Amino acid sequence: MTDPQRVNIGKQHPAAYKALIALSSEVEGAAAAAGLDPLLVELLRIRTSQINGCAFCLRLHTRDALKKGETPDRIAVLPAWEETGYFSATDRAALRLTEAITRVPDGHVSDEHFNAAAAVLTADQVSAIAWLATVMNAFNRVAITSRYPVGS
Q1: Rounded to 5 degrees, what are φ and ψ at 77?
Q2: Banded model confidence at residue 2, pLDDT cuts 50, 70, 90
Q3: Which CATH superfamily is domain 12-146 in?
Q4: pLDDT higher than 80, residue 152
Q5: Nearest by Cα to 60 from 24, 99, 22
Q6: Mapped to the 3 state alphabet, what secondary structure does 13-76 carry?
Q7: How far apart are CA 48 and CA 54, in angstroms?
Q8: Which residues contact 15 (CB under 8 A, 6 or more apart)?
Q9: Which of 49, 80, 125, 137 could join 58 in a cystine, given CB atoms 3.0 to 4.6 angstroms apart?
């Protein structure tokens, strides 16, 4: 039995995909306005994609992070960020919140996780990170559902 051809949902409904791209651009602007480091933004996108298992987005955002100057070491240890000294308090708060948002089925965003983030981040940063995670989770689902090709 063969699998039916996957539908590329971005191409099937291009207006919806363009709206997601526009939302992503708006959120990136909000992250910059909130003072979030562009390297941290890429790490949050990578971490979300790691959790969701999105190979397409992992490749894309790892390349973007490296082009922007992120170190291979920080990318390599990202799944174990809590065990390293590579990440600042801001990075850790952002990663913790991003993981909680991405893992909503595991117990929602707990008060503990939210309060830990809010103790380090401004309200604008918390909001921008939440929007970054929301948009990245959406892109992961588009790529995974459509089975965007990665490698040969």
Answers
A1: -95, 5
A2: very low
A3: AhpD-like (1.20.1290.10)
A4: no
A5: 24
A6: CHHHHHHHHHHHHHHHHHHHHCCCCHHHHHHHHHHHHHHHCCHHHHHHHHHHHHHHCCCHHHHH
A7: 9
A8: none
A9: 49
